[in-house]
Request: fold
Amino acid sequence: MTRAGSTHWRRVLTPRGIRVELGPFRLSRHFTDPEARLETMRHEIAHAAALLLDGERGHGPVWQRHAVLCGAHPRACTAARPAKAPKVVLACSGCGQEAWYYRPTTRVALAARLRCRKCRTVGFHVTRNAYAEATQSA
Reply:
């Protein structure tokens, strides 16, 4: 799975107390379908509303309520696929959940030590590595 979007925020200490500030929403450039991008924006707006209005993070019942109000599907993951194929695909050894990467990262190098967010199993294996394929064919 790859991240379609994200909501950035921080807590700021002021003389009146702690305040939450939102940063910009970020959308993945790999998702080019307009409907998927609109769904991602609604999803991220629901995160902002749940955080600012109720102080809640994550994909729990409060966020799900805001997602419905925003017109988004109340689920954590998107069914959309990115337009560009990922360079590296890792799969969980326990449940098969995929993690997609478009550039080599430390997480790819440490795949065997990663913990799956879905089933909590430790250990991913590489199912596709375009970098290794390019090196072998050259």
In short: Residues 34-54 form the longest helix (21 residues).
